[in-house]
Amino acid sequence: MDYRIVMDSGCDLNQEVEKQIPLRLVPLSLVLGEHHFLDENLNLKSFLEEMRNTETALQTASPSPNSFLQWFDEAENTFVVTLSSKISSTYNNAVLAKTMFLEHQASRFIHVFDSLTASVGETLVGLKIVELARNNLKNYEVVERVNQYIQDMNTFFLLDSLEHLIKSGRLSRFSGTLATWLSIKPILGGSDEGTIDLIEKVRGSKKAFQRFVDIIGEKGERLEDKILGIAHCNCLDKAVLLKEEVQKRYRFKDVIIVEMGATISAYADEGGLLVAY
Is the domain 155-276 a CATH 3.30.1180.10 member? Predict the structure, then answer.
């Protein structure tokens, strides 16, 4: 199949995964105080430091339809994977770009997937498309199988810092300060609709980490058939430890680790972990 995969910068990759996906990346825009960035080739450590030193919360803005349009003419089949439509308007802009393009190039095939997830969850969707395309499935068969894959996916976050939630107003400063003082670590999960919901609040980093490992097994089925993706925000050692603990207890087909980019770091903050499978 002649195909291309287009994803927004809400996906998180490593070099090995990048080699596997015929990818074009569309960056989100980031606003931090008076500074505007595109989420591409940013130095994450410097970006995180600037986030800490800026009193206002970081804001993200979806790519315009034109940002997607530029990549739609490269292959007969284009599969687009975006952040969950419940947390970003990127999906809607990609659909609009598809409509605009097909008005003039009706013979091409374009499908936009609402990943219902983020970060390495998007990446796993891209890898699933590659797997199916290599097995010579028709484009409509790829769509059917990938939609089922998205519905079956689990996504969970473990946050180490509440600072961004406080700055963004999602958590009051009093409650956030109290939770920080008590060392409360929230575990969040993606819903079937693509929203992010609170799963549990655990006191203490070690207990929260172990509970995070527990939840991966409790919420998962047929793990031996699945790839576990781990994304970390500037905490590689913690991600490696999570991989080791998971492999002791569960039999995933594979486990991959990626570093979060700026878009997802804006939600997870430094020390945050995200898993998808």
Answer: yes
